[in-house]
Amino acid sequence: MKTLILCYEKCSTCKKALKWLSEREIPYELRSITEENPTKEELTLWYQRSGLPLKKFFNTSGNLYKELKLKERIAKMTEEEQLLLLSANGMLVKRPMVVTDSFILTGFREEVWERAFQQN
Known about the structure:
The protein is globular, with a radius of gyration of 14 Å. Helices cover about 40% and strands about 10% of the residues. It is of the alpha+beta class.
């Protein structure tokens, strides 16, 4: 199983997630969310495959999300507008993000990751 992990190098949650993967000897390809932001096409595909609400792809605790007042604005935006916004700045994207052929995960919750990786 090919595993792509999108991370922000300075993010403590990303560091925990990478440690978790290493401890379980799960191979992965690492991609910096700031150096190689996900494209609108990638985000659209991942969103459709994930079964998650699009809001789960936003880093709602990030400074940029708050500065742009997205909490109030996002409900009025179309999916297309939200995907364009996400693809415009990696700091808006929830991380870490796991992309495999079988599943997509946003954020790091150990029990969720444990279940997802055990099933595949």
